[in-house]
Amino acid sequence: MWPYTNCDVVVDDNGVGFRYSFSALKDRHTAVEVNYTDPQNGWQTSTELVEDPEAILRYGRNLLKMDAFGCTSRGQAHRAGLWVIKTELLETQTVDFTLGSQGLRHTPGDIIEICDNDYAGTLTGGRVLSIDAATRTLTLDREVTLPETGTSAVNLINGSGKPVSVAITAHPAPDRIQVSTLPDGVETYGVWGLSLPSLRRRLFRCVSVRENTDGTFAITAVQHVPEKEAIVDNGARFEPQSGTLNSVIPPAVQHLTVEVSAADGQYLAQVKWDTPRVVKGVRFSLRLTSGSGQDSRLVTTAITADTEHRF
User: Fold this and answer.
1) Among 3, 45, 49, 306, which residue's Cβ finds the most Cβ atoms within 10 Å?
2) Which residues contact 307 (CB under 8 A, 6 or more apart)?
């Protein structure tokens, strides 16, 4: 499972390396009618209805009609319909990116891992700057933040050119990590990718590798959910973990401070605050009032994307 990081991809004119797209809502079916050859019906065509009640409540009933070619079992027809539903509901993301010669590290059908710092909202991949074999310590090309609880791992490339996952045992400095074992053949400037307990590994299945005229390779891959087979065959419950620390939920404001000062007979109020997590595109609405309770009155308002403002 080869990891690709921001250090591997060729950025476009807009400074974007990984480009994402999502399936349309109309393409996410919540019910399927599967036609199959039924031996219990004189080898005539029967129809098996497969539905996802939870998805219907969320998205509405979106019906797909399909033929299961060569299917002579009702159970097999049910599985085919359920597989389509779970595929369309769980694997909704597509990624496109461009690589140098590393585009030949995988072929269509292979599972790859995307370690995109921008999408994750934290640093999850880069290059190894130096290796201390005696202490099994790696110096990375950037500072990383590891959670205080849970087990973190790092994916490295061994001497055979294969990715190997090893546990992180210590974090002696912001840009250094100590691993449980050092894979044979790990070299400086090799790729590393973090696996954090707070983030889901972002796996994709490569569908195409196209060579460009400038010697680069254009990659297209679709989201891969390895739990899908257990969901379809065994009825496993699956609550997908987020692959990013960024959130669409507005963050709570914390550490709010107000400093009031007088200048030229007027009062100035400097307001500062922060948030526990980053949400792109969020803006804060501020209201300055005087007095308290029923005697309070609105003085002015402001909207800002910064975490400080002066009234």
Assistant:
1) 3
2) 272, 273, 274, 275, 284
Q: Which amino acid is at 305?
A: A
- The band of 147, judged by pLDDT with boundaries at 50, 70 and 90, is confident
Question: Does residue 80 form part of some domain?
Answer: yes
Which of helix, strand or coil describes residue 125? strand
CB burial of residue 126 (10 Å; 0-12, 13-18, 19+)? buried
For 43-58, letters b (16+ CB in 10 Å) and e give: eeeeebebbbeebeee
Does the predicted TM-score (pTM) go above 0.85?
no
Measured distance CA(278)–CA(284) in Å, rounded: 13
Asked if residue 133 is part of any domain, the answer here is yes
In a domain, residue 20? The reply is no
CA–CA separation, 125 and 2 (whole Å): 12
Given a cut of 70, whether residue 279 has pLDDT beyond it is no
Which residues span the domain enclosing 273?
254-310
pLDDT of res. 247: 62
Distance separating alpha carbons of residues 171 and 182, to the nearest angstrom: 15
Q: What is the pLDDT of residue 27?
A: 93
C-alpha torsion 7→10→11→13, nearest 10: 160
- Spatial separation of the C-alpha atoms in residues 189 and 290, rounded to whole Å: 58
Strand partners, 98: 218
Region 72-89: mean pLDDT is: 95
Tens of pLDDT, residues 61-78: 999 999 999 999 999 999
- Domain assignment present for residue 168? The answer is yes
